[in-house]
């Protein structure tokens, strides 16, 4: 782990083995199994570094973050390869874009760091009333395993640009790229500004959430854990923001049975990330008029996707993270197949060319799904797409909103009034119209309902999430 500018082991001396998703028998690293003592050490290091870092002119922090960005960019191939090995995300379709995205995030937040500004009230002669936007202090960032570099990009540069220092907890299943991020940041940032710890959530994660020296917890992970994190942080009135799970609707109108829309829906399905993405458009609402034709075309394109070694450029789809997750996906498939009326539009499993010892899984498309079945309600985090036909816009919107989640949504219609009408009525933090790709650096990103609280990735996310306002009223003269 990297704490206070030094590489350290866990105080207990214990470690956690990291297994690559490409081979269940291959231990590729062992990382420190940090606990409460390590949390304390990391928080102390961050606290010690805080006053000097916060006191720097914004332009100085900006220069440091831009140097980090340049160095990350010089290491993109290395970071992408490591991501593929660590997470199972395919290098061309996912791992390299994630590393590229991280660089873009560092540049974006470096750029907007001078926008952390206050306001002046028209308080009359003899009075100067102004606000300062101040950093919160020490931010604990807690990361999931699915896209560690990308999500680190949502948190680290924004928190640091605003003058906070950080303790970043890597996910136990995919910690390696985050340790590389620590190595690169250490070349350009003062010791203690970014500290990276590893280990289990119930140990080091919980210790950070409960540590009195942590001013804010920025958590990305499951809703179940997020609820605990918010409750524990709230119990001591620490700030928290939560980026949680999703069950995102993807609505396709009767006028949108085109090859271009098929490609975008394929992106939204996040098959290329084994659908291990919180923004997966996992419920595909197809207008009844185009249901059969659209599905035929979608299946034909899905068949062309290559499931293979995530380190190979030819692979479109890599591996599921671990055995537990792989089994979980099977459980959902079995449950879906057992429902009355379900139809299998595509099951890629029999034709799969790769398998154990890697956790490979082909896409599966089920149709005539009911919105109240488990496969349509719960986050599967595997390449299983549920297709639900619709005829009336009101029904499509009602089904889209009939979910505990509200993270992302996708709407496809050539009629912009209809598309925007749906977009505005869907209860999701992010709606895309006529496209299915990923987040764009600078956009507001975050969930409604059980998908979370708070926004990241944007200037307003940085201001609201990583600063606090102080009002200063001065009597002049
Ligand atoms: P998870 O909730 O199991 O773990 C996330 C992180 O929290 C890990 O680092 C884990 O060690 C830590 N953790 C676990 N228990 C903890 C505790 N009691 N206290 C503090 N920390 C604890 O999630 P996961 O399985 O790693 O990731 C998958 C989930 O993340 C999915 O639900 C997915 O939708 C969600 N996710 C959300 C977003 C988003 O931006 N909304 C992005 C990616 C993933």
From TrEMBL:
Metal-binding listed as a keyword: no
Record key words, sorted: Oxidoreductase
Organism: Ornithinimicrobium cryptoxanthini
Domain Aldehyde dehydrogenase: 7-472
Record PROSITE patterns: ALDEHYDE_DEHYDR_GLU (PS00687)
Listed name of the protein: Aldehyde dehydrogenase family protein
Superkingdom of origin: Bacteria
Residues of the active site: 243
Family statement drawn from the similarity comment of this UniProt entry: Belongs to the aldehyde dehydrogenase family.
Matching InterPro entries: Ald_DH/histidinol_DH, Ald_DH_C, Ald_DH_CS_GLU, Ald_DH_N, Aldehyde_DH_dom
